[in-house]
């Protein structure tokens, strides 16, 4: 059965139809700058296809919750549910073939990514018996499949990007047809965008986005300027479900509307300046989160307080037991030994600092260290030195005070990498490879290691150079320390020269 969805009219006035069955097999990518009409296009598509196919909408701004009143979508407010609860909800939505709107409004970027990934994962992992056809619409897809790392944690980004990749790359066999909309193709991960075979390109102004849109539509570069001339609600269409040649169309009207309408000019209120001053600069209401000042005690309570003050309470002063230098050194060695045991775990280099600190505290208690356990800030400093390969004796050396001072301008997670390079430069060892730098940073990405070096060079801390053989060496600015040339593609950090000679 062929179902044609009317999306609007072409510039010639003919009906612009979309083949729903072809769309389920080939997926859709929508691009357009803010205000180009992407959300209106998605709403038109959802309204026209709602009687024919199950739908799921990943809605970061709460624009599509109004579909519930007209078409019976189940609205799921993500902030009211855990990630596990949303995963189960995604599974049950497919089992019972219920159209849903995952409302992510009110959550920060990281929690939006985590909860969207859980919900998509639940729909993706259902048994084969329930692989019914389903449209999965993701608005503002660049938030969930970013091309580059942002302010969110690596774990959240990996979860979200993995779920989006599964949707677009492997979802077709499971009946999931991904429809993704983005403001800019340059912000969207390429492996996610590349899986779409249908395209609706709206108004855009940046040269790089116009060039990519023209390439996807098979247009010549000189024709890319046409994307600047598109009106709101106009899109260039191409794909097996739309048109075999680039076709300009105007999206038709919708039956529902978003909660947040397009801003309209409104006359300013007429009010006297003094009245507005009194309203705007009035004292703020009391903050409920802060403890309120206690009311003044009555006379009886004052008498009791005075009586209690007349009889001084004798309190035993804590007795401080002096600790000898030998005991301090022994405690320090036990703490260092515990830290080395934590870092000896296979995946310790890639775990969050909070998780490592919890395990460190537990091990210290087992060792009987008690109050000698370092706090989190001290643990960060110790971890930075340990990942850089610095022992306690070397970290306390006066020669490293300047290194520590210069490292302090970097973010905490980069300081260990800088100190590792500084140590190699001070000792004249070969420059660590990308794998060693990434491991010290807590990442598997070799490209991130290269970006770290570039960032440190931009901060004026190091100078990175290559010799004639393509080997890399790093010079520390103002310290006159330089590493020996090393292979940047080497898998391990080069061994110390003395150790190498001994093993030989």
TrEMBL record:
Signal peptide boundaries: none
Compositional bias (Polar residues): 253-263
Pfam families membership: DUF87
Chain intervals with Low complexity compositional bias: 495-504
InterPro entries per record: ATPase_Atu1862_pred, HerA-like, HerA_central, P-loop_NTPase
Region (Disordered): 246-265, 484-504
Domain Helicase HerA central: 10-81
Name of the protein in question: Helicase HerA central domain-containing protein
Originating species: Bradyrhizobium stylosanthis
């Amino acid at each position: 059965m062929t179902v044609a969805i009317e999306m609007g009219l072409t510039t010639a006035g003919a009906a612009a139809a979309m083949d729903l069955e072809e769309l389920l097999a080939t997926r859709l990518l929508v691009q357009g700058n803010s205000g180009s009409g992407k959300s209106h296009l998605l709403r038109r598509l959802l309204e026209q296809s709602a009687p024919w196919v199950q739908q799921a909408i990943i809605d970061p701004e709460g624009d599509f919750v109004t579909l519930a009143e007209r078409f019976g979508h189940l609205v799921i407010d993500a902030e009211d549910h855990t990630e596990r609860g949303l995963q189960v909800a995604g599974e049950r939505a497919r089992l019972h073939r219920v159209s849903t709107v995952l409302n992510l409004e009110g959550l920060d970027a990281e929690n939006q990514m985590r909860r969207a990934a859980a919900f998509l994962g639940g729909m993706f992992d259902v048994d084969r018996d329930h692989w019914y056809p389903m449209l999965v619409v993701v608005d503002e897809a660049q938030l969930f499949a970013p091309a580059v790392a942002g302010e969110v944690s690596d774990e959240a980004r990996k979860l979200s990007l993995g779920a989006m990749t599964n949707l677009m790359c492997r979802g077709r066999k499971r009946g999931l047809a991904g429809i993704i909309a983005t403001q800019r193709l340059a912000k969207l991960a390429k492996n996610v965008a590349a899986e779409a075979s249908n395209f609706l390109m709206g108004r855009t102004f940046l040269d790089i986005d116009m060039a990519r849109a023209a390439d996807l539509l098979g247009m010549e570069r000189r024709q890319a300027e046409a994307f600047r001339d598109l009106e709101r609600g106009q899109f260039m269409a191409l794909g097996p479900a739309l048109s075999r040649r680039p076709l300009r169309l105007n999206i038709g009207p919708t039956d529902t509307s978003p909660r947040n309408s397009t801003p309209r000019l409104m006359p300013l209120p007429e009010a006297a300046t003094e009245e507005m001053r009194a309203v705007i600069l009035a004292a703020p209401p009391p903050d409920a989160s802060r403890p309120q000042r206690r009311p003044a005690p009555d006379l009886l309570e004052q008498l009791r307080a005075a009586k209690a003050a007349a009889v001084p309470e004798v309190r035993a002063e804590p007795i401080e037991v002096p600790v000898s230098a030998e005991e301090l050194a022994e405690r320090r060695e036990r703490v260092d030994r515990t830290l080395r045991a934590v870092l000896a775990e296979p995946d310790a280099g890639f775990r969050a600092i909070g998780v490592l600190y919890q395990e460190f505290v537990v091990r210290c208690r087992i060792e009987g260290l008690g109050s000698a356990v370092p706090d989190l800030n001290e643990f960060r400093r110790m971890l930075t030195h340990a990942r850089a390969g610095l022992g306690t004796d070397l970290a306390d050396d006066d020669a490293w005070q300047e290194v520590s001072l210069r490292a302090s301008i970097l973010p905490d997670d980069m300081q260990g990498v800088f100190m590792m390079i500084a140590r190699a430069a001070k000792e004249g060892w070969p420059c660590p490879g990308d794998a060693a730098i990434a491991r010290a940073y807590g990442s598997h990405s070799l490209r991130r290691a290269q970006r770290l070096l570039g960032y440190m060079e931009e901060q004026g801390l190091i100078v990175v150079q290559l010799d004639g053989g393509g080997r890399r060496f790093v010079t520390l600015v103002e310290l006159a320390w330089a590493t020996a040339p090393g292979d940047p593609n080497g898998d391990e950090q080069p061994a110390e020269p003395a150790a190498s000679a001994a093993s030989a």
